[in-house]
Model the fold of this input.
Amino acid sequence: MDIITVDNVSMIGRGLWHGMPAFSDDYSSNCYLIDGGSELALVDVGFATAVPQLLQNVRSLGRDPEKIRKVFLSHAHADHTAGIAELLRHVDAVVYGHALTKETLCGGPGIYRSGFLPVDPVSAPVHEVIREGDVVRVGDVELTVLGLPGHTPDGLGYLISLPSGFSCFAGDTVDGDQPVKSAVTGWMNSVWGSRVSHLRASLSRLLNLGLHSFFPGHGDPQLGQVAVRDSLEHSLDQVHRLLSIRDLDWLIAIDV
Ligand SMILES: [Zn+2]
Done:
C-alpha cells in the first residue's frame, strides 16, 4: 500500500490504473482524505467493496474514521459514488454534490441520456447540493467549489489552499499523467453528457489557476507547478486533437 500524503490531504483509495496497483479495490476511483483537524472529509468513495479498506487506511494514518463528517463528490459515475450507502453505515457524514449528481443517485435520468440505464445504478443520498462558488469548511480547511463540466455535466472540482500552495480535486476532468500517456481524462461519451468543448474550457480554467498540485480521480496526484502545467497542457493538447476530428458526434457530443 502506498498512501500518498500532501500536507493535510492523503490519497487513501485507488483502483487498478495503467499497471499501478490498487489499494482500495480494483475498479474504484481514487479516494482522498482531508484532515481539517476537528473533522475529516472524503473526496469520492469508490465502490462499496472499497469502503472497509478505506476505513482501514484512515486508521493506519492514525485518524479516527468516526471523525469523517463530510463527503464531497466529483460527479455521479459509479466508480466514484457506489460506496456511499455502505460508507454511511459506518460514519455519520453529510454528502455534498451537484444537483445532477443528486438526481442521478436518486434514480432519475441525471447525467444519463433518456432511456439509458447504467449497468449498476447507484442509490444514495446527496444531502447538500452545491454549485460553482460555494465554500464549505472542513474544520480548519476551506474548499471552494468549481464547476468543471466536460467529462460529465455534473463535474465539480474542489479548490483547497494547502501549506504547499493551491491545489484542486479534479475528478475525471483530468487524470494524473500516466506511464502511458493515452488516458489523460475520463472517458467521453454522449450517454453521460460529455461535451468536449466544455472539457477544454474546464482544463483551461485549471491551467490558468496556477495550481501547485492537483488530485485526479484516477492516477497519481500531480505535484509541483511544472508537473501540473505539463499534465494539463498535455490533456488540452489531446482535447484539441479530438476537436480536430470531424464527424465524431455519433460518439461524442461536439458542439463547436
Ligand atoms: Zn467519470
